């Protein structure tokens, strides 16, 4: 039952945190160690400087240093994507070129936020980025954060560009996603853990997961079971992760906060604040329950 969906960056990708020192500086050593752990535990690829990577509060220089450090650790065989999204097209283009120079395999590009551009402007923005480097793009559709959807019709047109190859899907629109899957060769990666298996079952490529920071093998297991034809097991394994996913991703705290609470990977940067004691204890209990399930 293995899916035939294109997988330009593998199936199981982690949206990696950005570790900081106690003083709040980028911690390249911790980033290298965490990336190596993720790969050893079953992640096919890593996405840096995304939402979970606290990209709005890291500098351009830090983004480049993080990418170079992780590349040096994991080598050339592990796909590395880096977030280059910003509300400013000119800045996004600079970040894209910087990422190419630093050794990225692909670019995660969110729709421009805050200004809420119309679809024609969103499309023009992505095409400018696609034409700025030789790297493939994963478009990041997350209207809950950006305020602007990448509409299915826009995706259908963007799919005609040879370097627009994938979508990180956080739109919560299975009908729209299925429509684009049916009519293009775009690789769809779930960005919402509860939809990892459902999207995969209708032709998705895999996922880009925040929860994979703390439970990489558990997030991958449902897809492995599905590919082996064990669909009931896949559903059970997917259900096993639901409680931890809920607390990490739908409890009112951002994923960067909840992941760092479990990993003790340094502070988050303001305006984010660390998880309180009660939230941290609940996260730890859910994590231990998942581990007990095997």
TrEMBL record:
Its EC number is 4.3.3.7. Keywords: Amino-acid biosynthesis, Cytoplasm, Diaminopimelate biosynthesis, Lyase, Lysine biosynthesis, Schiff base. PROSITE patterns: DHDPS_1, DHDPS_2. SUPFAM superfamilies: Aldolase. It catalyses: L-aspartate 4-semialdehyde + pyruvate = (2S,4S)-4-hydroxy-2,3,4,5-tetrahydrodipicolinate + H2O + H(+). Pyruvate binds at residues 52, 208. It is found in: Cytoplasm. The record marks 51, 114 as: Part of a proton relay during catalysis. One of its GO terms (molecular function) is 4-hydroxy-tetrahydrodipicolinate synthase activity. Pathway: Amino-acid biosynthesis; L-lysine biosynthesis via DAP pathway; (S)-tetrahydrodipicolinate from L-aspartate: step 3/4. InterPro entries: Aldolase_TIM (IPR013785), DapA (IPR005263), DapA-like (IPR002220), Schiff_base-form_aldolases_AS (IPR020625), Schiff_base-form_aldolases_CS (IPR020624). GO terms for cellular component: cytosol. Catalyzes the condensation of (S)-aspartate-beta-semialdehyde [(S)-ASA] and pyruvate to 4-hydroxy-tetrahydrodipicolinate (HTPA). Belongs to the DapA family. This is 4-hydroxy-tetrahydrodipicolinate synthase. It comes from Streptomyces griseus subsp. griseus (strain JCM 4626 / CBS 651.72 / NBRC 13350 / KCC S-0626 / ISP 5235). The gene is dapA.
